[in-house]
Specification:
Distance between the termini: 67 Å
CATH architecture of the largest domain: 4-Layer Sandwich
Helix content: 25-40%
CATH superfamily of the largest domain: Endonuclease/exonuclease/phosphatase
CATH topology of the largest domain: Deoxyribonuclease I, Chain A
Shape: elongated
Number of strands: 12
Radius of gyration: 22 Å
Structural class: alpha+beta
Length: 340
């Protein structure tokens, strides 16, 4: 009887480990609470390793040896698989950036946590990284304009655009986008301003070139997957995937989701709609961007820059030197090159 119980427990552990390792395969990547657990794949990996070692210690007890070794085998396989996923996605963080070319576009996204991050700090980082597009979720247009003015004074002028939900003064209800004039004139699409088509709870911004030649630029801000907001979160991710239906789209922002949550949302091998994750293509997709208080491999990589087929990522950096800047997110900067 005890042997049968041990086998049953081992099977249950094996199923649980498989679900947490490959949630998209089991189609539970957007199901509570699995979605929350797999967000922190680095911590999950550490848990699998620690549990494997604990099971091996228990195996020293003769009556429990067979059971403990079976559990250790299951958890060891989960550890190896999770480590392989982290390795493939990459966790370098502050890699050297490639040189900019005449056609390259640099995109910076940073959830600034409202006025927690000074406008001058945002401007200096954006200028230092030669950003052409700056996506700023949780940033009011007033702060965005201060950033644009500071960047202009530093010799890097930008146009400021934004969208917001209501006039309650809550910074999370605002999303700001800065675009260099060198990319041409842009305007935020009206339907994303009035909320006719947008993310459910926090605003995203969709900006289109007024001359019709540049990329569509989307600043994403999906709601966090708290238990009460799971339906809204799933709807937000689907809406963001739908924005990547064009070949010429650049999307950046706080998705409140990792690559483990995009199962079934990619088209033709892409990650989200027709867009591919730039950090994944450049070996930084396992670097946690939130919260900034955790080590990079322990955090959740929920901030992304994505681009559709007209663009190819050639470099990315997750800045860890600004963890005490005020925001609970780390900035992500990506360099893109046109494919044609």
């Amino acid at each position: 009887m005890l042997r049968l119980f041990g086998i049953l427990v081992t099977v249950v552990i094996a199923i649980g480990a498989a679900i947490l390792t490959w949630p998209t395969f089991f189609r539970v990547d957007r199901v509570y609470p699995i979605a929350q657990i797999v967000s922190f794949r680095g911590i999950l990996l550490a848990f699998f390793i620690a549990a494997t070692l604990l099971a091996l210690l228990v195996a020293l007890i003769r009556p429990l040896r067979a059971f403990a070794l079976g559990v250790a085998l299951v958890l060891g396989i989960a550890s190896i698989a999770s480590a392989a996923i982290v390795f493939v996605r990459g966790g370098d963080g502050d890699d050297a950036f490639p040189q900019q070319t005449e056609t390259s576009v640099r995109v910076m996204t940073w959830n600034t946590a409202g006025d927690a991050t000074p406008a001058d700090t945002i401007a200096k980082i954006a200028v230092a990284m030669s950003a052409d597009i700056v996506a700023l979720p949780e940033t009011t247009i007033e702060t965005g304009e201060q950033v644009a003015i500071a960047m202009r004074e530093l010799g890097h002028p930008m146009w400021a655009h934004h969208t917001e939900y209501g006039e309650d003064g809550w910074d999370a209800s605002s999303t700001t986008l800065l675009i260099t004039p060198e990319m041409g004139d842009y305007a935020v699409i009206e339907s994303s301003i009035d909320g006719v088509t947008n993310t459910s709870t926090l605003p995203s911004a969709v900006a289109a070139p007024t001359d019709g030649t540049g990329p569509i630029v989307v600043v994403a801000h999906a709601v966090a997957p708290r238990e009460a907001y799971m339906d809204a979160w799933r709807s937000d991710l689907q809406w963001l995937a739908d924005q990547c239906s064009d070949a010429n789209v650049i999307m950046a922002g706080d998705f409140n989701a990792t690559l483990d949550h995009f199962g079934g949302l990619g088209v033709d091998g892409a990650d989200l709609g027709h867009c591919r994750d730039a950090a994944l293509e450049t070996g930084n997709a396992a670097v946690g961007t939130w919260p900034a208080t955790l080590p990079t491999l322990a955090g959740a990589p929920i901030d992304h820059v994505m681009a559709s087929e007209n663009w190819q990522a050639t470099g990315s950096i997750v800045l860890r030197s600004l963890d005490d800047s005020g925001s609970d997110h780390r900035p992500l900067i990506v360099q893109l090159e046109p494919t044609q």
